[in-house]
UniProtKB/TrEMBL annotation, chain A:
UniProt keyword annotation of Transport present: no
Organism, as annotated: Lentzea tibetensis
Keyword Transcription regulation: no
UniProt protein name: Methylmalonyl-CoA mutase
Upper classification of the organism: Bacteria, Bacillati, Actinomycetota, Actinomycetes, Pseudonocardiales
Key words of the record: Cobalamin, Cobalt, Isomerase, Metal-binding
SUPFAM superfamilies per the UniProt record, alphabetical: Cobalamin (vitamin B12)-binding domain
Automatic annotation (TrEMBL), chain B:
Keywords: Isomerase
Gene3D superfamilies: Methylmalonyl-CoA mutase
InterPro entries assigned: Cbl-dep_enz_cat, MeMalonylCoA_mutase_a/b_cat, MMCoA_mutase_a_cat
PANTHER family assigned to the protein according to its UniProt record, in alphabetical order: METHYLMALONYL-COA MUTASE, LARGE SUBUNIT, METHYLMALONYL-COA MUTASE, MITOCHONDRIAL-RELATED
Keyword Isomerase: yes
The species this protein was found in: Lentzea tibetensis
Pfam families tied to this protein: MM_CoA_mutase (PF01642)
Assembly: Heterodimer of an alpha and a beta chain.
Annotated Methylmalonyl-CoA mutase alpha/beta chain catalytic domain residues: 15-517
Keyword Repeat applies: no
Name listed for the protein in its UniProt record: Methylmalonyl-CoA mutase
NCBIfam families: acid_CoA_mut_N
One annotated GO molecular function: methylmalonyl-CoA mutase activity
Amino acid sequence: MGVPAVVTALQGRKAIVAKLGMDAHWRGAIVVSNALKEAGMEVVYLGHATAQDLVSAVAQEDPALLGLSTLSGNHLTECEAVMAALRDAGLDDVAVVVGGSIPAQDHDRLKSFGVDQVFGVGSPLTTIVTNIADLIA
Amino acid sequence: MTASASGIPLPAVAGDDLVAPGLSDRVGRPGEFPYTRGIRPTMYRERPWTIRQLAGFGTAQDTNARYRMLLDNGSTGINGVFDYPSLRAFDSDEPRARADVGRGGVAVDVRDDFDDLFKAIPLDSVSVSLVSSQPIGAVAHLAMYLRSAERQGFARTSLAGTSQNDFLMETAITIAPEALPPAGSFRLACDLADFALREVPRWNPVSVSGYNYREAGADATFEMALCLAHGQAVARELIGRGHDPDRVLSRISFFLNAHNDFFEEVAKYRALRRMWATWVRDELGVTSPRAQAFRYHVQTSGVTNAARHAHVNIARSALQGLAAVCGGTQSLHLNGYDEAVCIPSEHAAMTALRTQYVLLHETGVAKVADPLGGSHLVEYLTDSLEARAAELVAVIDDIGGVVAATEQGWVHAELARTAFADQKAIEDGTSLVVGVNTQLEGDDEQPMLFEIPDDTLERQVARLELVRSRRSEVGPALKAVAQACRDGVNVMPAVLAAVDADVTLGELGLVFRDELGRWEFPLW
């Protein structure tokens, strides 16, 4: 493992990072945002956002990536709502990744909602950055 | 260079040359100024630490059953955590709250929830820690708790316990939609404390939460500095409101982390006691032992727990707990081994509870006060942490104090910087963590995931609707709370009257947000 360096595929690409529901933990979202920034991305950190907030933000910013973070256990309910809202708004071409305290058993459910990738507890930044580079290349 | 977790250089062998002269004055005796060795003369021989396991999920009925299970099995205090909407003073049926109801803590909305939460628990003999971390929720929780207890026949003067009530939790450590601005949150925290000092004499009205500062990214030094700067700000404010300094200081308590670096953690507790007692004596001129004593609860570090090989977390929590009791804590929670993936299952909670009794009965650590006192290494680390934390407190004072440092985003920037550095150290292998970047082989047994009851939201919303349907007009009671906010008088009497009118937590939260403001975290 190593610290992620600038990744060509991510250079100048835009990411929106947001917290779901009322989950209180910002540490992971900010650490990952820093890693994406170091890898060359432009990061817009929204803080807490509802599904409708995210639709507006994606419409306005036209990001390559939407990164959602939650550690409170609300991921199934919240991600289902976000993915449905993006689809309804015709914005589901944006790549969506979800990270946080997300048990392995829920990863497939999240993907069935349209989430592209899930990063559970212990995911190295290197893995997150390279997977995102593959996803949006 | 080999160094401690917070960067203090470490020699291969710690000799007496590592320790500055004058040690006996700096260390003293347990129960005596400067309390480096503990706040009581014989420490755990006279009173074991309180075994205070954290619990909270689902509805108040669900959590009451868990409290009683823990008490029946040897817990000696209650440590009650609330879900995010309840911490932030949002009603459970608020659209953006619904997905978080009963997760990560118990859902409460109205006074009746507190009736259920503490049903059949003798509140005049069991001390109750309300982990009401944000002042916006804490003022309402305490009002509901007091009214509920009084209805059950317990006088408020008989109630012993703690409100976490930490403005940094609301404005820097845990993010929320529509957080109060730092000055407004600090004011509510001090209103609660001001009221409790006058009316609830056995209550600790602020528990300065170094634990959470650490979990958000601080190292041991920054955890210490924020605790000291925050505790000092609260003390000054309450003394400024006319309280007897001796009385104020006797009721301010702290909540600390037990992290991985064993000797540094032991040294941290020792250094904090000495720094606090010295500040109380030299800056405030207060000399009573009770006022000088730095009292605290400890929780083992959640962020150090790994999802892979989760049962190994039992060892982590036991070792961290050992540091806490070697350091002289008054109260302890050990995390469940499933901490990284869910709130504790019954099995994880009982394993943690029994591990506390292993520490108490089997290790022998409780037999002698400050068992590591005099160790060259521990005394060197104690002195080094004291010097480094004092420098950081001076930086915070130069910014204008802990409220100003939060308003300016300095606290957030420091935490985010250290959190990122910590993660990078794991990525590049400087920090080795079992199950994360080393010892990855073998079966990855997943613990059974604890799930909150399926009907939690449904039951909680039904409760809320029942209370709304039975009550009469709440407008005047809420207006009185708003008026108290505007007039700059203590909000607690108006909040208690509003609780008598059956207002909900979310209604009170809305008043506070409207009156005291909404604030964006300067995180990015």
